[in-house]
């Protein structure tokens, strides 16, 4: 056989053998991989089955400390800044023209109603009164005579009416002169004290000129301006207290609430009437008025419990049903050195006193009630 043919046959056999050998190895490798994969799958399945048999671990709940708070009735208060004012201030003025003859008071004197303040010179006023009274007597005689003649028919009704008119005119003149004489003595119209006396002996006053100022400070008024948002929460007759900048504290009742607001401030004037029998309280002193309003249910808490929600609203966090955190927006009614009074909570509520800033609304927690031992 030709040598080249033999070599070709040998090469062909070798190629076939090599190819056959590679397919077998691939088959064997594939079989091994499949077996390994099957083994691994069985292992995972067994592990999963084992995990399923184990109990699931519960999520750890955040621990908080709570305390029960119960609402208490509290009277609301409205604070108004104002000042003291006299109950009455009157400027006494001359009712006639004349020269001052005598001054009966000095600045600061206490007077009673009817006490003399200033006397004017009488001059010829008494003589004029005597003249008017004499004229009255004359007109009375004339009227009587005319009346008698009229009854006998010797005088007409017209003559009688004229005599009566003249008599009435004389009476009026006499009355006017008596009033004029009374006006020569200026008296106190009410109890009070003298302030800014302007009259001196020898001064000439025309009618309408100011003589002095008289002030009535008992009772004393404490006035202020209340906002339009608070004016409906108070009423005439309500009680209030006032603390003066001079240190005095007084109490009284509201006697006046304006029906018209100040155009510039939109506030309403109020008046608190307080007793001032000894007249020790002065006018024009700065004061802080505290007015009690309707009673509301409120809670007294520590300001440290206050917090903000995600929207920045001030409130308190509490634990509700199923130990779920609840957020309550609140309104501060009063702030004291011991704590704050707030409104907006249920009548009884379990507030979070420790950990309120580490939990959020809707989250379940593990509450622990506050005790005195736990706080130490």
Structure description:
The chain has a 6-stranded antiparallel barrel with strand order 2-9-12-11-10-13. Strands 6-5-3-8 form a 4-stranded antiparallel beta sheet. The protein has a 3-stranded mixed beta sheet with strand order 19-1-20, with no helix packed on it. Mean pLDDT is about 85; it is low at about 25-35, about 35-40, about 45-50 and about 370-375. The chain folds into 4 domains: about 1-40; about 65-75 and about 295-375, conserved putative lor/sdh protein from methanococcus maripaludis s2 fold (Beta Barrel); about 95-205, no CATH class; about 215-295, Elongation Factor Tu (Ef-tu), domain 3 (Beta Barrel), CATH 2.40.30. With about 375 residues, the chain is an alpha+beta fold. It contains 4 helices and 20 strands.
Short structural description:
This protein has about 375 residues and is of the alpha+beta class. About 30% of the residues lie in helices and about 40% in strands.
What is the C-alpha radius of gyration, as a whole number of Å?
53 Å
Largest sheet: 6 strands, antiparallel, barrel
Shape: rod-shaped
**In terms of per-residue confidence, which ranges show pLDDT below 50 for 5 or more consecutive residues?**
24-33, 35-41, 43-49, 372-376
Quote the average pLDDT: 83
Q: What's the multimeric state?
A: single chain
Order of helices and strands: HEEEEEHHEEEEEEEEEEEEEEEH
Structural class by sheet pairing and helices: alpha+beta
Terminal-residue CA separation: 113 Å
Strand order of the largest sheet: 2-9-12-11-10-13
| Percentage of residues assigned to helices | 25-40%
Number of helices: 4
**Which strand-content bin applies to the residues?**
35-45%
Number of strands: 20
State the domain count: 4
